[in-house]
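Protocol step 4 of 5: obtain the predicted structure for the target chain.
Materials: sequence only (see below). No template structures provided, no constraints applied. The aim of this step is simply to have a reference model before the mutagenesis design in step 5. Sequence pasted as it appears in the construct record:
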Amino acid sequence: MFRDRGPAWRRANAGHVSLEQLKVMSAIENCRTAALGGHVARCEDCAYTTIAYNSCRNRHCPKCQGAAAKEWLADREADLLPVPYYHVVFTLPAQIADIAYQNKAVIYNLLFKVSAETMLTIAADPKHLGARIGITSVLHTWGSAMTHHPHVHMIVPGGGISPEGKRWVSCRPRFFLPVRVLSRLYRRLFLEKLIATHKAGRLHFFGDHAPLADVRAFAAYLAPLRNAEWVVYAKRPFGGPEAVLAYLSRYTHRVAISNSRLVALGDKGVTFRWKDYRAEGRERQKIMTLATGEFIRRFLIHVLPSRFHRIRHYGLFAKSACADNIARARELLAVAKSEGQPAATTVDVNKPSCPCCGGRMIVIELFERSATPRHRPTGPTNVIRIDTS
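Step 4 output (structure tokens):
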């Protein structure tokens, strides 16, 4: 993504780059290069030879998410139910997002937990659905221009298991839960838990936000948010389980920007495509150029804390009882396990066929990090970089 731009990386935000961000920068720069080692593969039929360098396997690397997404989706296929699925999004006001930038793990955890609690509470209310639901939540922290915009995407089946566990309760057609009711409860719960977190001394403030360490100053800062609109919105239901998988594949392992959106890299900086959601139609697609240092700064904003889980499951899908709940839901829906699973397509991305004749490629040499392979590729240097994770 930034190959041959190492000095620019080190200049960007000098003195303000965390250890985790440095690891991400190094991983992306070295991904699928000789620095990580690799192997040489040769076609059994025509002897066509290629060099395949190892991937960095870093979860923030735009090149390493394809295989990870396929593996994750393969595991999720068995959990899909033959019911409509809904997409619900919980966002944070800009003032809270500013706090989150300095307290990522704490605020992102609150975003996950409060949004899930809100959904589970309203869904359990007999006035709305009166059922226990399952939720898959995915954290995104960016807008299209890589600005800081934390929000959670939820994929939720259109119904749940009744409190006594004896029937499946379906939501109304094309309507899951009232977003206005969700928004009000979400706002109240988040502010309550945020204030409690502040009182417990778990928030840290720097720069312009340093005065917020004071209890009164923090309360005054939050006061306008008690009556502000907290954006929660639901999108139309998916067409079926296959559509849910296709959608999830675009969201679960996405990073702040993909290589496909990069247009140019030159002396003026990095040019990339982005979407302006304030515009309509063709005007929404736009081009932006940022100085290299600013582009890197924006990308690094979205590096998550070490060991932080950006995909989480709640309710019926919570890990402790997910398998039993899925089995019970299928039983109540009178659907055999095999009928609810879309056909899996297995593609082994680690074993490509010969680009010359289509024959089987076999590994003839492994080489260590920064080593030079003994065998040379066929013809002009034609390096294939594949994900070896």
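Step 4 remarks: The chain has ten helices and 14 strands. The two ends are 18 Å apart (CA to CA).
Proceed to step 5.
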